[in-house]
Amino acid sequence: MDKKVINTTQESTNELIKINNSWFYKCEQCDHMAVTKSLLKIHAMLTHCDDDTPFLCSSCSYRATTRANLRRHEAVAHSEGNRSRLRSCPLCEYSSLRVTALRTHIKEVHLKEKPHQCGECPFRCSRTTDLKRHLVACHEKKGAYQCTKCNYSTSTGSSFSKHCRNYH
What is the CB-side half-sphere exposure of residue 143 using CA atoms within 13 A? Predict the structure, then answer.
């Protein structure tokens, strides 16, 4: 496994780690790695933020990364009309109006089911979309987007744009 570590900026202690031609942002507080800085920021807010975060629900322990997500949660989880239709997880405070979402939550969070396995490495995940993202990020040999300033390549335009913004 090819592994290289660099600091993203001088003032930040976030590490950008290259594993098998793919770059990941490492959390400063735990071993979590994210594909983008924005996903790392969401992880940090949900996992490591203090109780005084501005996006805490006043009716339950739900935390949101944005004010819009908090408003959506409050409208769904705490409005009188929806409360009677709400399905609650028996193992935590999660709730949803959809039974399928509750089943998915229990399988992913509590049972830690990961039925989708990569055919090229030991990676496993609970969702097909995560497996597709992993295959593109870690195993695609040559992407459709090739950087002319370095040897970076990717199959997605958004990843290529981020690369150009962040490194060139």
Answer: 21
- Measured distance CA(30)–CA(68) in Å, rounded: 27
Tell me how far apart the alpha carbons of residues 81 and 54 are, in angstroms, rounded to a whole number: 26
Give the pairing type, strands 116-117 and 124-125: antiparallel
Run of H or E residues at 117: strand 116-117
| pLDDT, tens digit (0-9, with 9 covering 90-100), for 111-152 | 999 999 988 888 899 888 888 888 877 776 555 677 888 877
Partners of 35 in beta bridges: none
Q: Distance between CA atoms of 107 and 115, rounded to whole angstroms?
A: 10
pLDDT at residue 115, as a whole number: 92
Residues of the chain with pLDDT under 70: 1-14, 20-21, 42, 45-54, 65, 82-84, 140-144, 155
In the structure encoding, which two tokens stand for residue 64, read together? Answer: 């949101």
- The Cα–Cα gap between 2 and 55 comes to 39
Q: Within 13 Å and on the Cβ side, how many CA atoms surround 126?
A: 11
pLDDT of residue 33: 79
3-state secondary structure of 57: coil
Structure tokens at 21: 């031609």
Residues 6+ apart with CB under 8 A from 98: 87
